[in-house]
Structure prediction request, 95 residues.
Amino acid sequence: MSEVIWPMIEEEGARASVRAPRPSLMTPLGVIEGEVLTYLDRHGSATLRRLNQELRWPAYMVMMAVGALIRTGLVRGIQHELEVVIRLRKPLYEF
Prediction:
């Protein structure tokens, strides 16, 4: 079997290394997570649809923030028929 070596085109290599860095989602997600927690603290619980309507962020960003909060254990997501209800696991501030 013979080995085939494809020559790299110089333009391809140059384009790959000069790509502009993509902006981070960490800061906007943190802000949205804070808004979700504040909303749930005030209202007790909300559907994912209601959070999307009230918070005025793109739906995919709200869903990412809620997913991050679920993974950290701060909120619970409960399927109720066709809706997903989001609730705080425990009060944010206990006095």
